[in-house]
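CORE FACILITY INTAKE
Project code: CF-77B
Contact: R.S. (postdoc)
Sample description: multi-component assembly, two entities in total
Requested service: structural model of the whole complex
Turnaround: standard
Below are the sequence entries exactly as provided by the requester. Do not edit them.
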Amino acid sequence: MLYGGRLPAPTNNLGKIIMLSSKHFFLLPALLTLVAIILFPLLFTVRVSFSSWDVFQSGLDFIGGSNYVRVFEDDRFWQSLQRLSLLSIISVSLQYTLGFALALAVWKQVRGGRLLRVLFLIPMMTTPVVMSVIWRTVFHESLGPVNDILSAFGIGPVPWLSSATGAFISVLIVEVWQWTPFMFLLLLAGLVSLPKEPYLAAAIDGAGTWRTFWQVTFPLMAPITIGALIIRLIEASKIMDTVYVLTSGGPGTATETSSYYIYIRGLRDFQIGYSAALSLVYLVIMIISLTIIAKLLLRMLVGRDE
Amino acid sequence: MIKINKFIGPASLLALAVAAASPAIAKDYTQFGIQKDLPGTCSYEAIDAKDYSGRSLNVITHAIPVIGEPTALHAEQFAELTGAEVNVVHVPFGDLFQRIMIPFQSEQNAYDVLFYASLWIGDFNRFLEPVPQKYIDSTGMADVTDSFTGVATWNGQMIQYPMDGDRHYLKYRTDIFDNAEVQAKFLADTGSALTVPETWEDYNKVAAYFNDRDWDGDGELNYGSAEVAKRDDLMFSAFISRAAPYAKHPDVKGGFFFDLETMEPLINSPGFVRGLKLFVDAQKSFPPGGNNFGLGDEIFSFGGGQTLMSYSWDDAYVQANQADSRIRNMVAAAPLPGAGEVWNRDTGKWDTFATPNRAPYMTWGWSSAVSSMSEEQDMAFDFLCFFSNEANAKHDLQIGRFGVNPYRDEHLDVDFWKGQGWENKTAESYVSTLSDMEQSQNRVFDLRVPGVSQFMSSMANGVAEAMAGQKSAQEALDGVAKEWAEITDRIGKDRLREAYANVVKLEDNEG
């Protein structure tokens, strides 16, 4: 029986146990879901990572930490991680800068603002694989339109996909094109929700546009900025489909990212045990580095750790 | 997934009754798209006589069109003829191996019939049902060439059902090579006659000369060579084609990729390194972006008339000679270029050959098999026998996108190809090139061992690093050899040796 919407405090031990059990009972569905979709796959991956499961050995045998030792000796994995870090930092920085600029442009009343908002969102709504196929055609060096257009100005042919730098830049362009709208959307939502009073105060103080941006808008947007950057860094660090379709990690290993490398080892080479170890090492590195980045951003933009 | 059901209706029963009462007249099966039913063990008529109503067959195959399209077509026909339900699952190439292997490893009877790359036999053999004797004795099987019977065989037992025959060979533009003016200019400019390249050095030289010129006069630049050079898109096969004549010595037996006795990798031996250096050098004659060309790009580039020469499977050749091609009958086939010097690992020296050494590469290709877990093995083998019956095989050969290439002696018939509208040289050079490969005593086969994907992936990565200038040819292949030794240790030297012996037997003409 409920009294005033609150449960009565149990008066004896039995009551306390029943109370506790009923609480656990109500938590059970959520707990089971958590176990099924997060904990079980994670624990299973941990178990697989200590096995030699590959194309010939299919059982979950136990080989100790051999796969982990191999990960630490695998130069190709560490190089792919460095490449991924560079790609993520550059692409997310560009996405943030462009996304913020576009959000500011649409925030203020401009002609055709609604249409622009829809147009800006189109890249984000397309399937990455489909868009990568289209971009691969666009960047095709002898048959694609980009080199055709550039040749009209006497430039090229530019080795978009066949040189290490060109391929890296091509992947970067596709990433920025596809995910800038996401930044735009988050930052625009933040701008729309900003209070008006600080702007009135700035106007009374005679602050110009530039000063208002740096001293009012930017600090007020700090929490949204941190959230947007972290979300995009997490997503960018998983880049796989664009690389797979656009460059297959080449030329050489110039655009091979960690996820693509793990895919090759796991699903192409069928080294299931080893790829599980790679995935877990990668997961740990991501958790640690993104936690550090989040703290640094908080300190830089908000001036505190929590 | 395609689900096909057939119920024999009153009309069919009436037709059967009429047929039984009439004198023996061959039935007309042209509604299935074939010119006519051809006599054979699994002809349309023979399969039509079977009744598999109420039974179903699960088939896994490649995505449409290559192999996937003929699978879907013949599954539909088989269902109509027998009343069976045939479920076809199409999977992209990159996923096909794991989609087959995971059910095998977890002992699930997911598919009765499998279409896959024949080089995976080293991984799949444990899970495949040997082809029953009655199919080995079938009319279609009797005509399969020795090479492709060998490709289907494992430890002396046929476990794959042949339905395709693939090899790499050279394709070149006859309107340029046979043009007297071009020949004279080439002679004047280079001091040597323009001939079909006999060695890979010649190939690179001719490709470089014709690169970046509008030699077909269409106002667009043309290029020397189109090759499959994209790391994860079958580039490993292109590299094997280029390295084979330098590394496969006709007098040295006992392994091309490994020394069969010691199972030491030979991939960084001087023959392979020479092949890689020439592959790297050839890049300057590729079209722009050519070092990122996958198989589709290569087919499009040569088949579309952009490049002078190419080498790979039959697809580009068939495409170039289709009725709507602007270079139809302007192409010819030739053996892969050879090598004037061949590495002899027995003596540790280069041997010089007056006539270039050729090492034709019987490049994997598609195959099919029946799972040993299947509960419908009789129907599954009937389906494969029907898939590759005489009429279907001839039909499929004529459609480039189907990916079915000659694998029977009757397919190596000049008149058959001339019947497709090919002119004399186009047809004759094609048939003679393929036939000569069958006769060669110095052929190279794929590394058909457990973990072949790991070996090829490692090799492709090393080659790609050299192609991109990240490493020298020797450094790159040393890295590959180190990885191969590690893979060998992981899979087990004895296990690999036992499997590799099957490959060596084919290469050394012992089985």
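Facility notes:
- Residues 1-24 of chain B have pLDDT under 50 and may be disordered.
- The radius of gyration of chain B is 24 Å.
Invoice: internal transfer
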